[in-house]
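Hi W.,

Here's what went into the run:
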Amino acid sequence: MNLKEVYPDCDKLLPRLIAEQKKNGFISEQAMKKISDETKIPISRIYAATTFYANLFVRKQGNYLIEICNSPSCYLNNSLDVIKELEKLLKIKSGETTKDNKFSLHIGSCIGCCDKAPAMMINKKVYGNLTKEKIKEIIQKCKS
Amino acid sequence: MQILKKTNLKALEKAKKLGSEKIIALVSKKGLTGRAGGGFPTGKKWQMVKETPANEKYVICNADEGEPGTFKDRFILENNPETLIEGIMIACFAVNAKKAYIYLRSEYTSLKPKLQKTINEVLKKAKSKLNMEIFSGAGSYVVGEETAIIASIEGKRGQPNLRPPYPTTQGLFNKPTVINNVETLTNIPQLVLFDDWKDLKLHSLSGCVNKPGVYELPIGIKLKDIIKLAEPKNKVKAIYFGCFGGCLPYEQFKEMEMKQENICKQNCALGSSTMIIVDETKSIVDIATNIAKFYEFESCGRCTPCREGTMRILHFLEEISLGKATKEDFETLQELAWVIKETSFCGLGQSSMNHLLSALQYFKKEFEAKLK
Ligand code: SF4
Ligand code: FES
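Here's what came out:
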């Protein structure tokens, strides 16, 4: 079946969801309803797609979305130390958001920066060769 | 490096002069195979799409590089996007596609502005009417699989589908579709234009080494000659071919020529020449647990053996790490690993146990030493 014949805008869905995530930090039910009205794609399908991806959220994320890699190359280069430092500084665990809504932390899969391991992204900007000291500096900068 | 050579639209010009038949024949003759891991002959794939009658056809450049330890496509996107774009244009010409997508993983979002700019410039310079769109992913390892990439663009959950039908006949929007990897497509203009083009492959080396990076090497070079380039920090214990490719003990296999068939014989897979170097200071049980976590996280949840199995495997491995597992647990772990491998729906689940099964084959003692 050619899905385009049923939902002509089907290939616009993921770009819309990514834009919404970027703009509001999450994809609310209202946002899904609106996208559904405009694209004529049933909201159930929109919810199904949204919840599939690790970078789309149905709960509001902090201003600084931190994604830190814990796949093997980073793991072998002591990513766990860096992760612990982050958890200590932010007082949250993976999947959580700070009370002031400033930071969200996600431990995830390889971000393709294994030559700069351990590595992380904050709002998709890459920080590599991380150490505890570097982490402190970076978080300090975000806070100020 | 050959992969960094620019072709400045001269290859496209040549391709247009030759015509689509001849260009496909040339790609086949030079023996280019898919660089995403499968190793399917590129010319043959194009031929299948060309032969399938349809009013519309598509080309998708797979830039959803997600295999842990792999960063060679990123290297190309950063350093030679012009030639990649020219490769996509040649692919479109060869199969008569009017629309191309570059499926860019979300982790590479920072590369998007420059890539978009380069697309605009190259298309303008070539006076091309081709519609080339960067399509961003949203974080999913399994989407790298070709049927899943199609599902993702179509706005569905990015889950794999059964093949056949293959994308070459019923792909995106049910139309014949070429899906090629970044490295594959970048090789196209180079092999079209340069008579001295060689079948070289990019290797991503990382892990316990001083010089991680992308190395361009001929196919079939000895393992030890690859590994020494990255300057291991200590005595090397094992090499992991990404997560899905499994592992080999270094000392025993260092003289082996790195060819797909040699590695397959050892129940491993070379994939896209990803090598994660593990030295004597690290525990294989810890790495197995780390990789198990990766699969548990990335399992898309569609089928039971992979969804439930990866979770149970992780649990067992954590218990072993903590010294809490019994002999019976260990036996169940091994049996379960085989069940997952044999009964999972797609490549992710089927290959998710390679690392564990090979670790059990070569480093069983490390596991046993931790049992209760
Ligand atoms: S094997 Fe895993 S990734 Fe593949 S379909 Fe099943 S649950 Fe999804
Ligand atoms: S393993 Fe961490 S970036 Fe690849």
